Amino acid sequence: MFKVTPNPPDASNAAPADTRFQAAAQRAIYHYLPQPDAATASEKPSSNLFSVSPHIDTETLLANAAENLESANQMAATLAFDLENPHRAIILGIQQLIDLSALLVDRAQEHVAPAACTAIA
User: Fold this and answer.
1) CA separation (Å) from 74 to 15, 16, 66, 98?
2) Predicted TM-score (pTM) of this structure
3) Least confident piece of the model among 8-17, 69-78, 90-99
4) Hey, where are the domains in the chain?
5) For residue 47, how many C-alpha atoms fall within 13 Å in the half-sphere facing its CB?
């Protein structure tokens, strides 16, 4: 069988590339198949649903942890007074663990930013 056109066609016979068409094709590809940027490509995927930004300083992290522990402490205290004894004792035990954790976070805050802690107190 004889082919009319060479396989592959000569570069001189090929139609000149339309740069606008190629640019539109690239935009469509990037729209539907976004390319990972260099920062996220180097990170391994995490199985965590939530994550903490690695750029947040330690003092801010400790302050938020202290606020979260205080909220949990208040919720446990409120719940403890609505329950009867064996469940009430369990909730009060949980509240005590929260209080102890809050003390540890407060001490860590004193080590990280001692000037800020004494100014607040």
Assistant:
1) 74, 72, 12, 10
2) 0.51
3) 8-17
4) 58-120
5) 0
